[in-house]
Design goal:
Layout (H helix, E strand, L loop, with lengths): L2 H17 L1 H26 L2 H10 L3 H4 L12 H14 L2 H20 L3 H5 L5 H34 L1 H4 L7 H26 L5 H4 L2 H18 L6 H24 L3 H7 L1
Length: 268
């Protein structure tokens, strides 16, 4: 694989993303909501003692999390701690999935819509170089934006939430593993599924349906955690990471070995 060619594809895609102001604004919307707006709302509510007492009385979640809540967390803030550290955790997986989905679909199907796909496929770039360059151009911005939103989220919790918890609560092992391992892996999987669909559709909106495949399981994880059925802990993250890693390797090899350039051009 020629690194120069891969880098050329990567830089070309990043330049196109930067030039599309509407696209950039849409990519930042969800991180702002999850990383800033939501935590600030719950932190503001956390300053209200009556709200904390009310949550503690009606909450059924603390019993399920009693073994993993740090001892330094007081009883009246445990429910809020669970919300911040466990219910919000799978929500942040939606950020890299949605961002990479939009970038990848705009990249691959965008070539068809802009009538540039034929010229690109007729270059001496190999299939692996082309796919890898496109994957990087969607994955790196998605992961970086996700990490930045998590850092902002964590700073808000530790600085503004210190008066509530009387301690720094972010990050924990689950958040570290999710941000460094699981989020990048699921981002790569999302991008590769977009590539698979992109070869068969003509519009970017059609290829963006991949996000739905991931969002429903994430919602299921949130519901299962709230009910205490299945806690999104480290061991579950490890299992998911292994499965997704295997899927990434299999799909990448399948994509690069079965690219039909003539068929892609005909479908454009």
């Amino acid at each position: 694989m020629n690194k120069v060619r891969v880098k050329t594809i990567y830089k070309k895609e990043l330049l196109e993303i930067k030039q599309d102001k509407t696209l950039v604004a849409s990519l930042l919307t969800l991180p702002v909501i999850l990383g800033i707006i939501f935590p600030m709302i719950f932190i503001a509510l956390g300053y209200n003692k009556s709200f904390l007492l009310g949550m503690d009385k009606v909450s059924f979640m603390t019993k399920q999390f009693v073994d993993i809540i740090p001892a330094r967390i007081s009883s009246n803030t445990r429910t809020l701690y669970i919300i911040f550290m466990y219910l919000f955790l799978p929500l942040f997986l939606i950020i890299p999935i949605s961002i990479s989905n939009v970038i990848a679909s705009s990249s691959f199907v965008g070539e068809k819509e802009n009538k540039t796909i034929e010229g690109l496929l007729n270059t001496p770039i190999s299939d692996k170089e082309l796919v890898f360059g496109k994957i990087l151009s969607a994955a790196i911005p998605s992961i970086l934006i996700t990490w930045i939103s998590m850092i902002i989220y964590g700073l808000l919790l530790d600085i503004m939430g210190f008066k509530i918890f009387n301690t720094f609560i972010f990050p924990n092992v689950e958040w570290m593993f999710m941000s460094l391992i699981l989020a990048p892996l699921i981002t790569l999987l999302s991008i590769q599924l977009v590539i698979c669909i992109s070869s068969r559709v003509k519009t970017s909106k059609s290829s963006q349906s991949v996000a739905i495949i991931f969002i429903f399981p994430i919602i299921a994880f949130i519901i299962s955690q709230a009910s205490g059925i299945l806690i999104f802990g480290v061991w579950l993250e490890v299992l998911l990471s292994i499965l997704i890693l295997v899927a990434n390797i299999v799909i990448f090899n399948k994509i690069t070995s079965k690219i039909n350039r003539e068929k892609i051009i005909l479908n454009s």
